[in-house]
Amino acid sequence: MENKYFRFRILLVGAFFLISFMAIAAKAIHLQVYRSPWLSQKASDQYEKSSTTSGKRGIIYDRNLREMAVSIDVTSIAAYPPRLKGTKFTANVLADILNLDARKIQRKLAAKKPFVWIKRQTTAKETRAVRNLQIPGIDFVTEYNRFYPHTTLAAQALGFTGLDGAGLEGIEFYYDQLLKGPHINFTVFKDALGNSFSAKPEPSANNRGHDLILTIDSNIQYITERALQEASDQYSALSALAIVMQPSTGAILSIAHCPHINPNTYSDSDKSLWRNRAVTDSFEPGSTMKIFSAAAALEYGESTPSSIFYCENGAYQIGKNVVHDIHKRGWLSLQNIIKFSSNIGAVKIGEKVGAKNLYRALRNFGFGRKTGIDFPGETTGSLADYASWSKIDTGAISFGHGVSASAIQMVTAVSAIANDGILMKPYIVQQIVNQNGHPVRRFEPQKVRRAISAHTATIVKNIMKTVVTEGGTGVNAAIEGYSVGGKTGTSRKLDKNGQYSNNRHTASFIGFTPADNPEIAIIVVIDEPKGQYYGGIVAAPVFKQIAQQTLNYLNVPPDGGTTKFRVFLGSEVQG
Hints:
Elements: H1 2-34, H2 36-47, E1 48-54, E2 60-61, E3 67-79, H3 87-98, H4 102-110, E4 116-122, H5 124-133, E5 138-147, H6 155-158, E6 160-161, E7 167-169, H7 170-174, H8 176-179, E8 183-190, E9 196-198, E10 211-214, H9 218-234, E11 239-245, E12 252-258, H10 277-280, H11 290-300, E13 308-310, E14 315-318, E15 321-324, E16 331-333, H12 334-340, H13 343-353, H14 355-364, H15 391-398, H16 407-418, E17 422-424, E18 429-433, E19 439-442, E20 447-450, H17 454-467, E21 485-494, E22 500-513, E23 520-527, H18 535-538, H19 540-553
Parallel strand pairs: 2-10
Antiparallel strand pairs: 1-8, 2-3, 3-4, 3-5, 6-7, 8-9, 10-18, 11-12, 11-23, 13-16, 14-15, 17-20, 18-19, 21-22, 22-23
Helix pairs in contact: 3-4, 9-19, 11-13, 11-14, 11-17, 12-17, 13-15
């Protein structure tokens, strides 16, 4: 009886082990055959960790193929914490060499991670000092650092990149997806004991981004920046900017700011200086707007250059508001209203044109809408619908108050006058090429629309030419041997209380040359100049300096458009 019970127990235990073995075998077959990829991935995850670095960023060239932004090889220092011994000592040594906080380094080294960055983009001196320590578990990874060989030249236009090589401002940001190189992955391995070691990324011939060829000419950019800096220093201005454009194409030849920044050390500059204010910021243009009011009168208001308007001897009341002129004048022709920059005359022009037609003309010139320039953060400016305008609104807008525009909108609009009434889309990149130098995309001049008729454009050109003749407000912009069409602007800035300031102004000049066949259009804006603040005194000479040197550089022959005359900085040339 006992033997039978004993044999039964043996069979029961044997059956249990047999079933267990079959279950284990079935599970093993299932994992090895049917779940093999999943199992391999789970195993890989336990001994492989991936890290990523960026490929080489494309080069930015000016129109003459001079390098404006390049990427250079730099070294970054990393660590494999499991391989380190004496993390506190290591942290202190690295902190001393790399000028970092030892406690922060120690926290990184104490983290249970196979790979950590210690410092990105170290100097050659720092790299050499750390290499000499020969610390096991410290590695050196090759990356790329953005470098701007001309330092401050066109800095706000170019923008800059961050530590990871991504564009943060300007062209670098707008064209980031094309400029940046592909991501390069490298794997960090752990052995059975948990020690880490790395597999270096293999160099690839296809690790570069696309290159950009700009419309900017670095020589014209230098001319513009130097003239702007001199004026800003002379009048202790808060800031200044200028743009040079080809009227017939919309190509930007220069776009300058003062104060400038050095994109190689952009973090040392105030953030307010980083953006391209010529595109992102708007201002009340003041009297430069009068040329577009005159264009509206000629196009829609049944006016001619000789149409006369009564300028009320210097004071014109509209409801509770009074519009003033600096000089008391009676009857003036439309042409002389622009030449002498009469606010009251501009109001009378606006009244004759009417709010609807004035709004229509300004919209056709591009005010109140983006130009479409290939640049981030463009402002639309401000131009309310005419249906909401009061009588004083119409008058104020006619002489450039109650409306705001960016510098790029202004120079694009005046270029339409220079270009026989055709508005062109401004652009700053003319070509994208791959790493082999083959074109990927070309940007051709693009017509937006006809802003005014060619006939009206010719008349406005001739009116603008009188502004820089003797007695006009823009006489300081006259260039010997070249005809110039232009307009001065002086606008009072709004204070925080919403009232116009008596001591804060924006001085500007906008124009083109040679006037009959314009090669360049230029806008100069000086923000809060001290002492003198009229556009005809502060901004017009900057226009002259930029235009004269640019025409010489471009070998544009004189057209004999002016003769010599004496210039008096008196009341007639204030603008």
